[in-house]
Amino acid sequence: MKNIKYYGLICFFIIISLVPINISATENNFGEVVERAKKSVVLLSMNPSDNPETNPNSSGLCSGVVIDDIGHVLTNFHCVYKQNFIKLYYYDENDWADYDVNVIGLDPLADLAVLQVLGKEEPIPYLKFAENSDNITLGTDVFALGHPMGMAWSLTKGIISSNERYARHPFIKALQTDSAINKGNSGGPLLNMKGEIVGINALIVSRISENAGIGLAIRGDIVKKSVSSMLSTGRVDRPAIGIMIMELVNENTRKKISKEFPKLKENYIPNTYGIFVRSDKNPKGIKKFDTIIAINDVMTNGQVQFSDEISKYDVEEIITLTVIRKRRYLKVDIPLKVFPVDADAMYSAIRRPTLPIIPENK
Asked: For a Cys staple, 115 with which of 101, 121, 273, 297, CB 3.0–4.6 Å?
Protein backbone atom coordinates (compact mmCIF):
# COMPACT_ATOMS: atom_id res chain seq x y z
CA MET A 1 0.00 0.00 0.00
CA LYS A 2 2.84 2.36 0.85
CA ASN A 3 4.50 1.58 -2.49
CA ILE A 4 1.28 2.46 -4.35
CA LYS A 5 1.06 5.82 -2.54
CA TYR A 6 4.74 6.46 -3.18
CA TYR A 7 4.49 5.82 -6.91
CA GLY A 8 1.25 7.83 -7.06
CA LEU A 9 2.96 10.87 -5.54
CA ILE A 10 5.86 10.55 -7.97
CA CYS A 11 3.44 10.50 -10.95
CA PHE A 12 1.54 13.49 -9.56
CA PHE A 13 4.68 15.62 -9.22
CA ILE A 14 5.89 14.56 -12.69
CA ILE A 15 2.59 15.69 -14.25
CA ILE A 16 2.61 19.00 -12.33
CA SER A 17 6.21 19.69 -13.36
CA LEU A 18 5.40 19.06 -17.01
CA VAL A 19 2.48 21.51 -17.22
CA PRO A 20 4.58 24.72 -17.15
CA ILE A 21 6.87 23.23 -19.80
CA ASN A 22 3.94 22.70 -22.18
CA ILE A 23 2.62 26.22 -21.61
CA SER A 24 6.06 27.71 -22.09
CA ALA A 25 6.50 25.79 -25.34
CA THR A 26 3.22 27.18 -26.64
CA GLU A 27 4.27 30.72 -25.78
CA ASN A 28 7.63 30.20 -27.46
CA ASN A 29 5.96 28.87 -30.62
CA PHE A 30 3.69 31.91 -30.82
CA GLY A 31 6.66 34.19 -30.34
CA GLU A 32 8.39 32.49 -33.28
CA VAL A 33 5.27 32.88 -35.42
CA VAL A 34 5.13 36.59 -34.60
CA GLU A 35 8.80 37.16 -35.39
CA ARG A 36 8.46 35.41 -38.74
CA ALA A 37 5.32 37.39 -39.58
CA LYS A 38 6.91 40.75 -38.70
CA LYS A 39 9.51 40.23 -41.41
CA SER A 40 6.70 40.15 -43.98
CA VAL A 41 4.92 43.28 -42.72
CA VAL A 42 6.03 46.60 -44.19
CA LEU A 43 5.59 50.23 -43.22
CA LEU A 44 4.33 52.71 -45.82
CA SER A 45 4.87 56.45 -45.56
CA MET A 46 2.70 58.56 -47.90
CA ASN A 47 2.04 62.13 -48.91
CA PRO A 48 -0.11 63.65 -51.68
CA SER A 49 2.78 65.94 -52.64
CA ASP A 50 5.84 64.78 -54.58
CA ASN A 51 7.94 66.40 -51.88
CA PRO A 52 6.47 65.74 -48.41
CA GLU A 53 8.51 68.56 -46.91
CA THR A 54 6.28 71.06 -48.68
CA ASN A 55 3.19 69.59 -47.03
CA PRO A 56 4.31 67.69 -43.91
CA ASN A 57 0.92 67.88 -42.18
CA SER A 58 -0.59 65.66 -44.89
CA SER A 59 1.93 62.86 -44.39
CA GLY A 60 0.53 59.57 -43.18
CA LEU A 61 1.45 55.96 -42.66
CA CYS A 62 -0.10 52.60 -43.35
CA SER A 63 0.78 48.94 -43.13
CA GLY A 64 1.26 46.35 -45.85
CA VAL A 65 2.16 42.69 -46.21
CA VAL A 66 4.36 40.73 -48.61
CA ILE A 67 2.16 38.08 -50.28
CA ASP A 68 4.32 36.14 -52.72
CA ASP A 69 7.87 35.06 -53.53
CA ILE A 70 8.19 37.90 -56.07
CA GLY A 71 7.80 40.40 -53.23
CA HIS A 72 4.47 41.99 -54.14
CA VAL A 73 3.00 43.98 -51.27
CA LEU A 74 -0.71 44.17 -50.46
CA THR A 75 -2.22 47.18 -48.71
CA ASN A 76 -5.44 49.23 -48.63
CA PHE A 77 -6.58 51.30 -51.59
CA HIS A 78 -7.20 54.27 -49.33
CA CYS A 79 -3.53 54.21 -48.32
CA VAL A 80 -2.35 54.94 -51.87
CA TYR A 81 -5.33 56.90 -53.19
CA LYS A 82 -4.07 60.20 -54.66
CA GLN A 83 -0.68 59.77 -52.99
CA ASN A 84 2.26 60.99 -55.08
CA PHE A 85 4.91 60.14 -52.52
CA ILE A 86 5.06 56.56 -51.21
CA LYS A 87 8.05 55.06 -49.43
CA LEU A 88 8.26 51.50 -48.11
CA TYR A 89 10.30 50.15 -45.19
CA TYR A 90 11.02 46.55 -44.19
CA TYR A 91 11.42 45.05 -40.72
CA ASP A 92 15.11 44.30 -41.17
CA GLU A 93 17.87 45.59 -38.90
CA ASN A 94 20.33 45.16 -41.77
CA ASP A 95 18.25 47.17 -44.22
CA TRP A 96 17.40 50.75 -43.23
CA ALA A 97 16.71 51.85 -46.80
CA ASP A 98 13.45 53.33 -48.01
CA TYR A 99 12.07 51.90 -51.24
CA ASP A 100 9.99 53.39 -54.01
CA VAL A 101 6.97 51.45 -55.23
CA ASN A 102 4.78 51.16 -58.28
CA VAL A 103 1.05 50.71 -57.75
CA ILE A 104 0.25 47.86 -60.14
CA GLY A 105 -3.23 46.87 -58.99
CA LEU A 106 -6.26 48.73 -57.64
CA ASP A 107 -9.53 47.46 -56.19
CA PRO A 108 -11.33 50.45 -54.67
CA LEU A 109 -14.53 48.56 -53.84
CA ALA A 110 -12.62 46.09 -51.67
CA ASP A 111 -10.20 48.80 -50.51
CA LEU A 112 -7.17 46.86 -51.74
CA ALA A 113 -4.05 47.69 -53.75
CA VAL A 114 -1.00 45.74 -54.90
CA LEU A 115 2.45 47.33 -54.93
CA GLN A 116 5.63 46.42 -56.76
CA VAL A 117 8.76 47.30 -54.79
CA LEU A 118 11.59 48.87 -56.78
CA GLY A 119 15.24 48.13 -56.09
CA LYS A 120 14.83 45.30 -53.57
CA GLU A 121 16.96 42.42 -54.80
CA GLU A 122 17.04 40.15 -51.74
CA PRO A 123 14.11 37.74 -51.29
CA ILE A 124 11.61 38.74 -48.60
CA PRO A 125 9.63 36.23 -46.54
CA TYR A 126 5.96 36.29 -47.47
CA LEU A 127 2.79 35.23 -45.70
CA LYS A 128 0.30 32.69 -47.03
CA PHE A 129 -3.47 32.94 -46.94
CA ALA A 130 -5.43 30.65 -44.64
CA GLU A 131 -7.61 28.13 -46.44
CA ASN A 132 -10.66 28.49 -44.19
CA SER A 133 -11.13 32.24 -43.88
CA ASP A 134 -14.64 32.05 -45.36
CA ASN A 135 -15.63 29.47 -42.73
CA ILE A 136 -13.53 30.65 -39.80
CA THR A 137 -15.35 29.98 -36.54
CA LEU A 138 -16.37 32.61 -34.02
CA GLY A 139 -13.96 32.84 -31.11
CA THR A 140 -10.92 31.86 -33.18
CA ASP A 141 -7.77 33.53 -31.83
CA VAL A 142 -6.23 36.07 -34.21
CA PHE A 143 -3.64 38.82 -34.05
CA ALA A 144 -2.97 41.98 -36.05
CA LEU A 145 0.39 43.41 -37.03
CA GLY A 146 0.84 47.01 -38.10
CA HIS A 147 1.72 50.52 -37.05
CA PRO A 148 -1.17 51.92 -34.98
CA MET A 149 -0.78 55.61 -34.19
CA GLY A 150 2.79 55.39 -35.49
CA MET A 151 3.78 52.62 -33.08
CA ALA A 152 5.74 50.62 -35.65
CA TRP A 153 5.35 46.83 -35.88
CA SER A 154 2.92 46.55 -32.99
CA LEU A 155 0.98 43.39 -32.20
CA THR A 156 -2.58 43.27 -30.90
CA LYS A 157 -4.45 40.07 -30.14
CA GLY A 158 -8.12 39.17 -30.08
CA ILE A 159 -10.75 36.84 -31.51
CA ILE A 160 -13.07 36.62 -34.49
CA SER A 161 -16.34 38.22 -33.39
CA SER A 162 -18.22 37.60 -36.67
CA ASN A 163 -17.45 36.22 -40.12
CA GLU A 164 -20.62 37.56 -41.76
CA ARG A 165 -19.97 41.29 -42.00
CA TYR A 166 -19.36 43.22 -45.18
CA ALA A 167 -17.42 46.40 -45.93
CA ARG A 168 -18.94 49.15 -48.13
CA HIS A 169 -20.83 46.63 -50.30
CA PRO A 170 -22.25 43.10 -49.82
CA PHE A 171 -19.75 41.86 -52.42
CA ILE A 172 -16.94 42.58 -49.94
CA LYS A 173 -17.18 40.11 -47.06
CA ALA A 174 -15.35 41.08 -43.88
CA LEU A 175 -14.31 39.62 -40.55
CA GLN A 176 -15.14 41.44 -37.34
CA THR A 177 -12.51 41.28 -34.61
CA ASP A 178 -11.96 42.77 -31.18
CA SER A 179 -8.22 42.83 -31.79
CA ALA A 180 -7.30 46.49 -31.38
CA ILE A 181 -7.25 48.16 -34.80
CA ASN A 182 -6.34 51.84 -35.08
CA LYS A 183 -5.17 54.35 -37.68
CA GLY A 184 -1.90 52.98 -39.00
CA ASN A 185 -3.11 49.36 -39.00
CA SER A 186 -4.74 49.94 -42.38
CA GLY A 187 -3.46 47.49 -44.98
CA GLY A 188 -1.84 45.20 -42.42
CA PRO A 189 -2.71 41.53 -41.98
CA LEU A 190 -5.08 39.86 -39.54
CA LEU A 191 -3.49 36.48 -38.84
CA ASN A 192 -4.41 33.17 -37.26
CA MET A 193 -2.14 31.51 -34.72
CA LYS A 194 -0.20 29.81 -37.53
CA GLY A 195 0.71 33.19 -38.99
CA GLU A 196 -1.58 32.79 -42.01
CA ILE A 197 -3.57 35.71 -43.42
CA VAL A 198 -7.28 35.52 -42.63
CA GLY A 199 -7.98 39.14 -43.56
CA ILE A 200 -6.59 42.58 -44.39
CA ASN A 201 -7.39 45.25 -41.80
CA ALA A 202 -9.38 48.07 -43.36
CA LEU A 203 -11.98 49.68 -41.09
CA ILE A 204 -12.91 50.44 -37.52
CA VAL A 205 -16.42 51.04 -36.25
CA SER A 206 -16.21 53.76 -33.63
CA ARG A 207 -17.81 57.04 -32.66
CA ILE A 208 -14.46 58.47 -31.59
CA SER A 209 -12.33 57.42 -34.61
CA GLU A 210 -10.28 55.18 -32.35
CA ASN A 211 -10.45 51.52 -31.43
CA ALA A 212 -13.73 50.59 -29.76
CA GLY A 213 -13.37 46.82 -30.02
CA ILE A 214 -14.94 46.58 -33.49
CA GLY A 215 -12.45 46.21 -36.31
CA LEU A 216 -13.20 44.96 -39.82
CA ALA A 217 -10.76 43.06 -42.02
CA ILE A 218 -11.49 42.20 -45.65
CA ARG A 219 -11.95 38.43 -45.56
CA GLY A 220 -9.12 36.31 -46.91
CA ASP A 221 -11.09 34.53 -49.63
CA ILE A 222 -12.26 37.87 -51.04
CA VAL A 223 -8.70 39.21 -50.87
CA LYS A 224 -7.24 36.21 -52.72
CA LYS A 225 -9.68 36.63 -55.63
CA SER A 226 -8.98 40.35 -55.76
CA VAL A 227 -5.20 39.86 -55.73
CA SER A 228 -5.39 37.28 -58.52
CA SER A 229 -7.31 39.72 -60.72
CA MET A 230 -5.09 42.70 -59.88
CA LEU A 231 -1.93 40.78 -60.71
CA SER A 232 -3.49 39.67 -64.01
CA THR A 233 -5.20 42.86 -65.23
CA GLY A 234 -4.40 45.58 -62.70
CA ARG A 235 -8.06 45.90 -61.69
CA VAL A 236 -11.05 43.92 -60.44
CA ASP A 237 -14.31 43.85 -62.43
CA ARG A 238 -17.39 42.61 -60.63
CA PRO A 239 -20.80 41.87 -62.20
CA ALA A 240 -23.86 44.12 -62.00
CA ILE A 241 -27.30 44.30 -63.56
CA GLY A 242 -27.29 48.08 -63.87
CA ILE A 243 -30.28 49.04 -61.71
CA MET A 244 -31.01 51.04 -58.57
CA ILE A 245 -32.75 48.94 -55.96
CA MET A 246 -34.53 49.00 -52.64
CA GLU A 247 -34.76 45.99 -50.36
CA LEU A 248 -38.37 44.87 -49.87
CA VAL A 249 -38.43 43.24 -46.44
CA ASN A 250 -41.50 44.31 -44.43
CA GLU A 251 -44.59 46.49 -44.27
CA ASN A 252 -42.51 49.57 -43.41
CA THR A 253 -40.54 49.34 -46.65
CA ARG A 254 -43.79 48.98 -48.60
CA LYS A 255 -45.12 52.12 -46.93
CA LYS A 256 -41.85 53.89 -47.78
CA ILE A 257 -42.20 52.90 -51.43
CA SER A 258 -45.82 54.10 -51.51
CA LYS A 259 -44.78 57.44 -50.03
CA GLU A 260 -41.87 57.88 -52.47
CA PHE A 261 -43.93 56.81 -55.50
CA PRO A 262 -47.51 57.92 -54.75
CA LYS A 263 -48.72 57.16 -58.31
CA LEU A 264 -47.80 53.48 -57.93
CA LYS A 265 -50.80 51.31 -57.07
CA GLU A 266 -50.35 49.69 -53.68
CA ASN A 267 -51.44 46.28 -54.97
CA TYR A 268 -48.49 46.44 -57.40
CA ILE A 269 -46.10 46.35 -54.43
CA PRO A 270 -45.76 42.63 -53.64
CA ASN A 271 -46.44 41.44 -50.12
CA THR A 272 -43.23 39.44 -50.18
CA TYR A 273 -39.47 39.67 -49.83
CA GLY A 274 -37.53 40.80 -52.87
CA ILE A 275 -35.52 43.49 -54.64
CA PHE A 276 -37.60 46.48 -55.75
CA VAL A 277 -36.36 48.32 -58.86
CA ARG A 278 -36.52 52.09 -58.35
CA SER A 279 -34.39 53.39 -61.24
CA ASP A 280 -35.85 55.08 -64.34
CA LYS A 281 -33.20 53.81 -66.75
CA ASN A 282 -32.82 50.03 -66.70
CA PRO A 283 -31.52 47.25 -68.97
CA LYS A 284 -33.83 45.96 -71.66
CA GLY A 285 -36.39 43.66 -70.10
CA ILE A 286 -36.36 45.32 -66.66
CA LYS A 287 -38.85 48.03 -65.80
CA LYS A 288 -39.19 50.49 -62.97
CA PHE A 289 -41.24 49.05 -60.07
CA ASP A 290 -40.37 45.43 -60.92
CA THR A 291 -39.60 43.22 -57.92
CA ILE A 292 -36.83 40.67 -58.45
CA ILE A 293 -37.31 37.46 -56.47
CA ALA A 294 -34.85 35.03 -58.08
CA ILE A 295 -31.64 34.74 -60.12
CA ASN A 296 -31.42 31.63 -62.31
CA ASP A 297 -34.24 30.12 -60.24
CA VAL A 298 -32.41 30.67 -56.95
CA MET A 299 -34.65 32.68 -54.64
CA THR A 300 -33.18 35.94 -53.30
CA ASN A 301 -34.93 37.39 -50.26
CA GLY A 302 -32.72 40.40 -49.60
CA GLN A 303 -29.90 42.60 -50.82
CA VAL A 304 -27.07 40.51 -49.35
CA GLN A 305 -28.43 37.27 -50.79
CA PHE A 306 -29.05 39.06 -54.09
CA SER A 307 -25.44 40.28 -54.23
CA ASP A 308 -24.09 36.88 -53.18
CA GLU A 309 -25.93 35.22 -56.05
CA ILE A 310 -24.82 37.77 -58.67
CA SER A 311 -21.20 37.46 -57.54
CA LYS A 312 -21.17 33.83 -58.70
CA TYR A 313 -21.28 34.97 -62.33
CA ASP A 314 -18.90 36.81 -64.65
CA VAL A 315 -19.27 40.12 -66.44
CA GLU A 316 -21.09 39.71 -69.80
CA GLU A 317 -22.62 36.41 -68.67
CA ILE A 318 -26.40 36.20 -69.17
CA ILE A 319 -28.59 35.49 -66.15
CA THR A 320 -32.33 34.89 -65.88
CA LEU A 321 -34.26 37.02 -63.42
CA THR A 322 -37.64 36.09 -62.02
CA VAL A 323 -39.63 39.27 -61.46
CA ILE A 324 -43.08 40.31 -60.27
CA ARG A 325 -44.58 43.05 -62.45
CA LYS A 326 -48.08 44.31 -61.80
CA ARG A 327 -48.94 41.08 -59.96
CA ARG A 328 -47.59 38.88 -62.78
CA TYR A 329 -44.56 36.57 -62.65
CA LEU A 330 -42.09 36.98 -65.51
CA LYS A 331 -38.65 35.71 -66.50
CA VAL A 332 -36.15 38.06 -68.10
CA ASP A 333 -32.68 37.37 -69.54
CA ILE A 334 -30.12 40.05 -68.66
CA PRO A 335 -26.41 40.34 -69.62
CA LEU A 336 -24.26 41.37 -66.67
CA LYS A 337 -22.32 44.63 -66.80
CA VAL A 338 -19.26 45.85 -64.94
CA PHE A 339 -20.17 47.11 -61.48
CA PRO A 340 -19.38 50.87 -61.49
CA VAL A 341 -17.19 52.14 -58.64
CA ASP A 342 -16.78 55.86 -57.96
CA ALA A 343 -13.52 55.93 -56.00
CA ASP A 344 -13.66 59.70 -55.56
CA ALA A 345 -17.08 59.51 -53.93
CA MET A 346 -15.96 56.64 -51.69
CA TYR A 347 -12.60 57.96 -50.53
CA SER A 348 -12.25 61.71 -51.05
CA ALA A 349 -13.43 62.45 -47.49
CA ILE A 350 -11.26 59.84 -45.79
CA ARG A 351 -8.53 61.21 -43.55
CA ARG A 352 -5.36 59.22 -43.60
CA PRO A 353 -3.51 58.31 -40.41
CA THR A 354 -1.10 61.12 -39.65
CA LEU A 355 2.40 60.58 -38.44
CA PRO A 356 2.82 60.85 -34.66
CA ILE A 357 4.11 64.12 -33.25
CA ILE A 358 7.14 63.52 -31.07
CA PRO A 359 7.85 66.33 -28.61
CA GLU A 360 11.28 67.88 -28.84
CA ASN A 361 13.67 67.36 -25.96
CA LYS A 362 14.24 70.56 -24.05
From this structure: 101
